[in-house]
């Protein structure tokens, strides 16, 4: 009898606890303003990495480049049900969650697995797709590799930050696991025999194999939880109301089996369209866009970097007085800090770090970061150029009654500029190439566009060859222009 009483009490306590939890969750969703703010804004910004067909990739639709795939269809469904417009923002996969946490995007849909580690940082909806892993290999190696255990002494590649990368490191023994940001880079490494296999989701593996006769897919045989092979939509931590609303759309997608019935077949049609014409000329608009953004970043960064460099150089050379001494120390610290940290880190800090204070677009963030970096180097060029001007020039100008400011402006700096022009020219050439770093935050410069073309066409080497030629044309042309002005200065 006592056992029955205890059992009844246990059931009652469980029901009460469950109801209180549900009430708390519902109350939190009701007080959370994430949904209200989003609907008031009128747009739903979706972050994704469009190099992972059929989940997300780029295709030419009616002559225009567009991000498509089954994940985009999921995003469109959620946006439509919420009554807002979907805006798709592309960036590297390992930057997506940072972008979500810093408010650069409202949600992430990129074939992302709702793992326990990720749930600590973001909130996930219910899963909208249940997949699995495969390992893509070169077709000629089908007799050598059977599953993950066949790669002892070999190298498996996976996308950095993905579940495949983490599980490959955990569940393989004697195997080197190599991470890369882009899946197209991994496929290129595979075909050039830098790695022997690429771990990826089954739908993506099937897409690559179907469109590249030199590749084959084998079972991975990873021991996985359901969360490791499923895909869900990620929202910022604490967005309970938004997650609750999105779950309604996700549940409809699962109930009606829209992914398999509608979304994947539609993605397959775009994939076939991409592979009808894989010539590089067919993608000239994508490369032209890359050139345009590369030039915008370079020209703006040179302009602002030069102004900042002049100010820093003058501050570093200031003598006397507490104020000038303080400026000198600040300028010195800035130059040393910028020169001592990688530009990629600086770009990510400006985009994501400052994004917590002000929401800057990716292009603006890239220009600011590269300008700040360039200014530190230009400051040293200018300081060296000023020091190279004979001290007698300053004495002569001052003897004529010129102020220190006028002497610097009209006598010293013109001569210093002539001396440092070759160094400034090298800085300009370097910035053309260094602009490629901003591709990590989704700016559509040449490197970013080449990665998209590679993932769309399944051709690894041709897009790289094209951008090599384009970079050479840009740098060679800039070099000839700079040399022309250098000769004019020497003549004067």
Automatic annotation (TrEMBL):
Keywords: Amino-acid transport, Cell membrane, Membrane, Signal, Transmembrane, Transmembrane helix, Transport. The keyword Repeat does not apply. CDD domains: TM_PBP2. One of its GO terms (molecular function) is transmembrane transporter activity. Residues 1-29 form the signal peptide. One of its GO terms (cellular component) is ATP-binding cassette (ABC) transporter complex. Its main location: membrane. It comes from the Bacteria. Belongs to the binding-protein-dependent transport system permease family. HisMQ subfamily. This is ABC-type amino acid transport system, permease and periplasmic component. It comes from Levilactobacillus brevis (strain ATCC 367 / BCRC 12310 / CIP 105137 / JCM 1170 / LMG 11437 / NCIMB 947 / NCTC 947) (Lactobacillus brevis). The lineage of its organism: Bacteria, Bacillati, Bacillota, Bacilli, Lactobacillales.
């Amino acid at each position: 009898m006592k056992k029955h009483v205890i059992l009844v009490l246990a059931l009652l306590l469980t029901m009460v606890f469950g109801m209180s939890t549900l009430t708390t969750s519902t109350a939190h969703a009701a007080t959370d303003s994430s949904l209200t703010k989003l609907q008031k804004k009128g747009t739903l910004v979706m972050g994704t990495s469009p190099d992972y067909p059929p989940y997300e990739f780029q295709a030419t639709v009616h002559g225009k480049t567009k991000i498509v795939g089954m994940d985009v269809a999921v995003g469109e469904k959620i946006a439509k049900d919420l009554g807002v417009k979907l805006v798709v923002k592309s960036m590297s996969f390992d930057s997506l969650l940072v972008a979500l946490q810093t408010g650069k995007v409202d949600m992430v849909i990129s074939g992302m697995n709702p793992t326990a580690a990720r749930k600590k940082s973001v909130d996930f909806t219910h899963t909208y797709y249940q997949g699995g892993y495969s390992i893509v290999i070169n077709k000629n190696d089908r007799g050598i590799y059977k599953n993950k255990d066949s790669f002892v002494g070999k190298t498996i590649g996976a996308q950095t930050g993905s579940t495949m990368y983490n599980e490959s490191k955990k569940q393989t023994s004697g195997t080197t696991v190599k991470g890369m940001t882009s899946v197209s880079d991994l496929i290129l490494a595979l075909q050039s025999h830098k790695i022997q296999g690429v771990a990826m989701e089954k739908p993506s593996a099937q897409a690559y194999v179907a469109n590249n006769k030199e590749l084959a897919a084998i079972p991975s045989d990873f021991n996985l939880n359901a969360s490791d092979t499923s895909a869900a939509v990620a929202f910022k931590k604490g967005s309970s109301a938004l997650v609750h609303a999105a779950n309604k759309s996700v549940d409809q997608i699962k109930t009606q089996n829209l992914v398999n019935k509608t979304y994947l077949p539609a993605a397959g049609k775009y994939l076939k369209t991409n592979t009808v014409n894989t010539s590089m000329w067919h993608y000239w608009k994508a490369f032209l866009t890359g050139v345009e953004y590369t030039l915008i970043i370079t020209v703006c960064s040179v302009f602002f970097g030069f102004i900042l460099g002049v100010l820093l150089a003058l501050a570093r050379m200031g003598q006397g007085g507490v104020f000038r001494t303080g400026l000198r120390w600040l300028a010195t610290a800035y130059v040393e800090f910028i020169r001592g940290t990688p530009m990629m880190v600086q770009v990510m800090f400006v985009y994501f770090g400052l994004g917590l204070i002000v929401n800057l677009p990716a292009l603006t963030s890239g220009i600011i970061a590269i300008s700040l970096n360039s200014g530190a180097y230009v400051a040293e060029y200018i300081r060296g150029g000023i020091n190279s001007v004979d001290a007698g020039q300053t004495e002569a100008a001052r003897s004529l009654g010129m102020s220190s400011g006028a002497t610097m402006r009209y006598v010293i700096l013109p001569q210093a500029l002539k001396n440092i022009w070759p160094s400034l020219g090298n800085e300009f050439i370097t910035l053309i190439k260094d602009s490629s770093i901003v591709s990590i935050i989704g700016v559509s410069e040449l490197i970013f566009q080449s990665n998209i073309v590679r993932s769309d066409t399944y051709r690894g080497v041709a897009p790289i060859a094209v951008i090599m030629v384009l970079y050479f044309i840009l740098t060679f042309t800039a070099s000839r222009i700079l040399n022309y002005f250098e000769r004019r200065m020497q003549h004067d």
